[in-house]
Amino acid sequence: MIRFSENIKAVFFHFCARFQRWLRRVRVALRRVRYLRSLMVTLVLIALLGAGVAWSEYQTNWFARRLGAFLLSINALRPESGALWKDIQAQVRTQQAIDASDPLPVPRAGLPDAVTRSRFEGSRVPESGVPGYVAIYKIPLPGVDLNTRPLGDVIASLRVYRQGLAIVKALHLPDVYFHAEVRKQIDYLYAQVGDIEAVAPDTLGVTDPDSLKAAVFSELATAVIPDLRLREKDALITAYQNGQITKILLYRDLGRFRGELFREGSQVPVVFEIEAGAVSEIVE
Fold first, then answer.
1. Which of 68, 97, 119, 256 is a Cys-bridge partner for 139, taking CB atoms 3.0 to 4.6 Å apart?
2. What is the pLDDT at residue 267?
3. Over 90: is that where the pLDDT of 175 sits?
4. What pLDDT does 234 receive?
């Protein structure tokens, strides 16, 4: 019989003990892996189920309808008490009193014809502070009796109408707006007196009719554009007061506003400019 020394036995037993501990750690790790795998599978299934429920609710509103039907069925059983319920009852009573009362007659004295025939609505971005965009629209109300319109609607329409009128009075029409009219007047003059012709050579021995025409255009534009601008602005004010302007748009641009004004029946806007300070005072 082979006898091992005590040292060999001790080493062998120590190795066996370490091997057993290693096996236990492996078993524990495997159990953890199986647990984590089961947990991951469960989480994936829950996520898929949640996504399916959300998609189904988005498509059918099944849960929302069931919840609404349930709340409606028990609404009669709920006590009519609490501060919120009192506020709701007060609002209902106030609205019933307003509906039952006779509408206030809208005073016609001093009311512009454009406001009696149309509703004026305005919008601005942002709603407070310095505006970056302003729009004013005229909405015709054919066949609508003024006295059937709520007084608040007429007052709001009048306020927007006055803002639009102030914009039209404060706008500035650029010179280029009148260039076509200046050219028409020059063409008319040429037709009366004849075209420009070279009658004497200049210092270089050459006369440029185009340069002469440009000089004539510049001089005539300087002379007639102020009068044309004044007449056109008066015409725009009259058109607005008569309800012939359907839309005004303003866009903020480098410390001032550029604008477009649309006449009734025309798709071509009248382009203008207006100072930013004037716009801020008008729309505030």
1. 119
2. 87
3. no
4. 94
Residue 20 placed within a domain: yes
Same domain, 144 and 255: yes
For residues 64 and 58, what is the distance between their CA atoms, to the nearest angstrom?
10
What's at 142, amino acid-wise? Answer: P
Pairwise CA distance, residues 77 & 92, whole Å: 20
Domain that holds residue 139: 113-283
Cα–Cα distance, 265 to 277 (Å, whole number): 31
Q: Is pTM, for the whole model, over 0.90?
A: no
Quote the CA–CA distance of 163 and 279 in Å, as a whole number: 9
Check residue 6 and give its pLDDT. Answer: 66
pLDDT attached to residue 26: 77
Q: Are 164 and 283 in contact (CB under 8 A)?
A: no
Do 254 and 236 touch, CB atoms closer than 8 A? no
Looking at the fold, whether 15 and 119 belong to one and the same domain comes out as no
pLDDT digits (tens, 9 = 90+) for 46-66: 888 888 878 877 777 777 777
Give the DSSP H or E segment for 274: strand 270-275
Final residue in a domain of this structure, among 45, 60, 75? 60
